[in-house]
Fold these 2 entries.
Entry 1:
Amino acid sequence: MMAQVSSALIDIQSWRGVFVYVEMKDGKPRDASLELLGASHKLKESLQEEITAVILGKDVAEFAKILASYGAEKVIVAEHDMLGHYTSDAYTKVLSKIVLENKPSVVFYPATPNCRDLASKMAARLKTGLAADCTDLKVNGNKQLVQIRPDFGGKDLSEILTKTRPQMVTVRPGAFKKLQPKDSKVRVQKVKVDLKPEDMRVKILNVEKAKIEGSDDLVKSQIVASAGMGFGSRENIAIFEEFVKAIGASPGASRPVVERGWIARDRQVGQSGKTVAPKLYFAIGISGSVQHRVGMENSEFIVAINNDPNAPIFKFCNFGIVGDLFKVLPLITEEVKKIKGNSASS
Amino acid sequence: MVNIIVCVKQVPDVAELKIDPLTHNVVREGVPSIVNPDDRIGVEEALRIKEKYGGRITILSMGPPQAKAALFECLSMGTDDAILLSDRTFAAADTLATAYTLARAIKMYRNDFDLIICGRRAIDAETGQTGIQIAEQLEIPHLTYVKNVQVFPDEKKVVVRREVEGQIETIEAPIPILLTVMEGLNKPRLPNLREIIKSKKKEIRVVNATELGGDLSLYGLKGSPTWVAKVYPPPPKPGGTIKSGEPKESVSELINILAEKKLIVKRVE
Amino acid sequence: MHADGEKFDAIVVGAGPAGTTAALTMAKEGMRVALLERGEYPGAKNVFGGVLYRWPLEEIIPKFWETAPLERQIVDHRFMVMAKDSGLLMSFKVDGKDKAPYNGYTAIRAKFDRWYASKAEEAGVLLANSVAVDDVITENGKVVGVRAGQGAENELYASVVIGADGVNSSVAVKTGLRNPPDPDEVAIGVKEVVELPSETIEARFNLRKGEGARMETIGCTHGKMGGGFIYTNSSSLSVGVVILLSHLMELQMKPYTLLDEFKSHQMIEPLIAGGKAKEYSAHLIPEAGYSRLPRLYGDGVMIVGDAAFLCSYPEGTNLAMASGMIAGKAALHAKKNNDFSANSLSAYQKMLAESYAMKEMKRKSSSHKQLIQNPRLFGVYPDLVGELLADMLHINGELKSLKHKRAIKKFRQKIGLLRAIRDAYSARGMAP
Ligand SMILES: Cc1cc2nc3c(=O)[nH]c(=O)nc-3n(C[C@H](O)[C@H](O)[C@H](O)COP(=O)(O)OP(=O)(O)OC[C@H]3O[C@@H](n4cnc5c(N)ncnc54)[C@H](O)[C@@H]3O)c2cc1C
Ligand SMILES: Cc1cc2nc3c(=O)[nH]c(=O)nc-3n(C[C@H](O)[C@H](O)[C@H](O)COP(=O)(O)OP(=O)(O)OC[C@H]3O[C@@H](n4cnc5c(N)ncnc54)[C@H](O)[C@@H]3O)c2cc1C
Ligand SMILES: Nc1ncnc2c1ncn2[C@@H]1O[C@H](COP(=O)(O)O)[C@@H](O)[C@H]1O
């Protein structure tokens, strides 16, 4: 087993610069990485560090310009055939070498599944601290980077400080905004990648798309409407279905509704169901438990209908109607039909 | 024969956590503790592998003495033995220090393992880092987000399916390896009466820092490169509009907003 | 027989006060005992007021008050007669300062039962939580074990099974010792725990630090058999209403509506004001009374506590413990003679008949039936008391002598002297 480096040994001053790890997705740099370039710029005033984008992959050099336009002051490119598909072995080997040669003080990764895999392994290999899935970042009076992350499913926020370098952070997609792209000059540094087949301990046999489930529309839809226990019985779901049809929403449900078989299982929204972030989300007769909340809170506009004014859902919705859903919902359906229907005659 | 270690964390049942209405802090007192749900899936997978190929399943945990309850629960599902690393020195560890501690115990007590199974993440802090970092400490490969496992003991390999963002990767990997598993892999069994009775007679080996040895400064808070400087309740989301009057009025206001935001548009024929 | 399943001397089903006492009594004398509990831990799902009386726990764990998780020592016993918009409160204070050990203590069962069961574990009892027994195993009419699910791996065998699984006991029902309770054999208790700072509780109930009060109330159940209660815990109050199930059905009310009414009564509301309602729970309480007690034993089986309907509200835990202790002794005796037949176990019922527990059941129950059928005690009297006192204390220039006359007339009209005497006789069972 490797011995750990005691943090006291690390000379913090000799680590300079901010690294943003750029993940490729569907043949281009992922938005979540571009957002981190934006975040780095926000912090630049107080940190005063150079912002470097690091991109690994098969043929990725061409993206340096894009990265520059979103705020990278320098781009490090590592290309190799064996980087064509993510494996923790190959990626960790290449990235850790780059990091150790350049000694940045911070490495940001988007908190996507593979980046969280990579960051964990990187941090363990470099014996440094890693703050997971942060939702906010700031710099405190001592010029320390403060990493803010939710605990207990978002019930608490904690501020994490790191005493080792490089400080590593995964940041939740959507937590920061990308900059407006503008043409900028780039310094591109191509690194020599030294990868041998023996470096890969695992072998990818096959990659396929996961089967598209019947509820694929749920995650893609612009409008999602979910039914909760407020409906009281399976029969009452009929008025929900009518509403869904009228407004053109994808139907979802809270867990107990799914468990009772009122709505199909693959339509559950929440911690143990699907995560959705449509433009418009309706929570109808749903109390708004954390487990439900984590699956829909990133929706752009949340409408809640509930007859209990103290229901937690009212704490994080954009528009809430306190009232009996059996009265309210048919009214909305009617209004929506009016608007949509009118168009036929106009 | 496949020897398996399952790393199990006892966590508060997040579903039962309440917020103190005055301080807005999470109230931990009186909240039941449970076996971390993903870890329970790990235990189940280990049992299924053992049922096919034989071997020994060891439950390993780091935590306060109360964590014994979680270990008993895993034993009563049918696993063989359990080790609890428990010492004040281990407290307030971040994932790196936790991984160091667990990895050291594995080296000391169960170095003949074929598989280590961890949960994808623990529901209290949800970092999902510990398992990967254990593997790195032990210099073995790892695979995350595992949705299916096939073991080939004779060929000393596993074939797993890993599911990430709508992609399924089928990967072959050598034994020994560490896997992190998640919901959907299996449905954990309920312990039966006989196993519950048997589990009561199994010993849980409790190991403290001195026994575990090594460099004590690498355990717990001291050995953690990250530390929590502050915990506070999330600021309330900028309040939305809440309407409690006449439904007709609320609905028409809603419709106006939605129309304005172009969220309901006239159907174009 | 059951080849790989190991056999215990005794299986106790249910780790409430009755079961834990039975298990402890047997294990102390070296019997091998498995104690099976449905909850995640003993007490996890228990609902009770409540006051724990020193007897007979003291016999089982001497000086228990020094280590058990108790809330407050009871020094103030209150009784209230409640009418719609008035209340007459009597308070009897005894056992003042530094009189430990006290006669009764409030306790929170989630804490107490857990502690108590840990004492049994220390004595060698094998406690298994999250085990819901759903059937007994019989061979040739003799109970030889229990089942907690399907398949041989969910069977467990023993020389004797003790059913301590509460009012809805499956052991009692599956062995045919009794039927599931009828609605006029059980009351439903609904309870809320209201959190308040300890100083607030002490100020509102006129208590010194650490002292506690219990309050029983009649007149809050729409004339039906039942009552309300408040017990003081360290930093919470247990507030609840108890009503005979068949009477609740007649009222066609939800139990929590009664509790809400009780809580908003002017005598109660100020006591709980500002408190945070923490948990709401409901539980059945045996009210069958002495005359409908089932047979308490059979071949290889005994039933104790609520499972055996041994409860005479508000004394339940002490009767549960007493019956558990005596059943444990009977089992020890049976073990010595290696005879677990019904005949041998009948010693349990005999010993119990001689104990305070059974005699108290008998005393109360002689009037039980009359109480059930007598609506006056829970409605007419409380209302009348309120009405008469209100009239008497309302000073408006009218002569008191006239008021007295009117009061007597009213009393005659509404109740009648003879009936009142009879009612008083039948109410003696309610006497503390
Ligand atoms: C490990 C775990 C994972 C979980 N995963 C998920 C998950 O993925 N998704 C999920 O949804 N849940 C999940 N849950 C369950 C979650 O904790 C809640 O129990 C669930 O979300 C509650 O569903 P609900 O809001 O529909 O029901 P309730 O909490 O019962 O709420 C019903 C609401 O309807 C309102 N209502 C009643 N009648 C009316 C009426 N006539 N008009 C208007 N309003 C009315 C009530 O006021 C109430 O607020 C999970 C739980 C656990 C422990
Ligand atoms: C609201 C209320 C107030 C009360 N106030 C008082 C009071 O002030 N003082 C007092 O002395 N008494 C009081 N009582 C009565 C007292 O609570 C009971 O009489 C007493 O708890 C009976 O003890 P027991 O051990 O027989 O049953 P229980 O306490 O009911 O214990 C039964 C145990 O068996 C377990 N169990 C049930 N079924 C199964 C199964 N199938 N398999 C395995 N385990 C099972 C249960 O989980 C439980 O732990 C009150 C009761 C109520 C409801
Ligand atoms: N204290 C611990 N003891 C044992 N296993 C742990 C501990 N902490 C984390 N793990 C394992 O690591 C996984 C991921 O945890 P986390 O990184 O905290 O999300 C868990 O599902 C466990 O399998």
Entry 2:
Amino acid sequence: MLRRTVSLWGAMAAAGLAVTASTAYAAGSVTGSTDQNWSSLSVLVLATFIGLGVIGRVSRLLHTPLMSLTNAISAISVVGSILITGSDFPIPIRILGAIALFASMTNIVSGFLITERMIRMFKVRGEAGRGESKP
Amino acid sequence: MIQTLVEIAYLAAIILFILALYWMNDPKSARKSVSAGVAAMALAIAATWSRPEVVHHVWIIIALLGGVVVGIPLSRVALTAVPQRTALSHAFGGLAAGLVGTAKYYLWFGDDPTELTTFRMTAIVVETLLGFLTLTGSLMAAGKLHGVSWIPQRPVIYPFQNFTNLGLLLIALAIGVFLIVNPTGSVLAFPLLIALSLAFGVLLIIPIGGADMPTVISILNAYAGLSAVAMGFVLDSRLLVVAGALDGASGLILSIIMCRAMNRSFTNVLFGGFGQVQEVASDAGEERHYKEETIEGAAQALEMARLVIIVPGYGMAVAHAQHRVAELYDQLTARGTTVKFVIHPVAGRMPGHMNVLLAEADIPYDDIVEMDDMNPDMAQVDVALIIGANDVVNPAAKEKKGCPIYGMPIIEAHRAKSVFAIKRGKSTGFAGIENDLYFRDETFMLFGDAKDVVGALTKQLAVDVAA
């Protein structure tokens, strides 16, 4: 499975790099912080491998909580939203930021709370207080 | 000084996020996962907020409070509604990414177009495309899962569908490339990109039916993660790149698990139009007959069994029968019968859906067995009780070449000594094919609502004990 994952991911990354590189070439110049860009890309590759390694070991029992947890984690876009909402930018831009901030915060709150709620339900034999289940 | 502290906080957040996912490998340590995640998120928010360029605090507070007000009720939904809640939160994630991308584009567009470097513009295009596609796609998926009346439940298929979809995607990509090469070339290009992404999301999900939802939700999860990664490139934030990559990797792994459990490929799920083409096949062949069994008869068989497996499916979720199933489990285990739950990876409407429902009903997870671990021992099972599962126990997947689900890994309940299948009606399953299991000699049908039938079984068992 890892092989398929890696090859798929790799193909996507390669395609992305190819597009970036070729358009950069077509544009004739690569301006800005090129070194920064490349190190961000290597961070992406490393983080993806860590993610695949760590998540490949997640218990199958917990796939639903896993999804709600990663959902909350990817609401880290809250960082970008705060910067856009809170900086001294034109009002229309900040309105876009505020909507994004609202959406991210919703995901953070509901994502973590429901993950917590679900994880608490998983019990082993003996620990499960059987008999008090609601109809 | 503040800059350094902010960076340190971001670094700590990255570590905590990875730990949060690491602890999910076992239900016991998973309780720490949420705390780690919350801590990381709090650090990230506090650090960002303290940056000197953030000056408008009231706006932030209002938006955050709005998120809390909407987020809390969304976390209290019934567990049967978790799939649609998840789809909805993917939609919110996509929306946030799309809006930030849009805001950044117009900010640089108005301020200083030279800031729109090729690299940034590529990231903005990817972020916007994936973000808005995930928004409408996930909204459609959530609507289908929730049974919203104006969104068709069955797959919608029309001629040249894949051609239309692919064409639309190609146009969107072409506009994207145009924007990358020439960021300020046309004022129409960016709005058009947004509109096409939104439309593509809808068209992508329309032809997909219920049982493919676990895969689709996972794919949308990966898209939401990828759009966060792209946002990280736009904003030059490593924290965003890492968190997005973790989310993307998780969505990808889950999609692959789901696809393998159905013996299908990504392209087949997204472009296959499952559940439509096959209906012709079921009309062929002679009339076959079910054997119905009474509650009393089924209860008797359960009483004599030593090893019982229960195979839950989406039908159990629809009927909200998990608590009744738990009562049945109690009755049987109290008699000394061994009861195991066998769960197919794609049972239900999202990965792990059945596990959460059983956990809600306080069924200990050490009695939940995976399909691959149970199949070799199936011959020792006295009674296999199928509750609202259909295609995942259809032996045609092993025996009938040319059958649409041929090759799909199944729970081999047909090898058990006897099978009792609880089924709402006599209709075919999602795949539109008849289930050979129901016509086997050792199979008996119990027709009715899963909740009622399981409840009646439990009552009958209790009566028999008293007698």
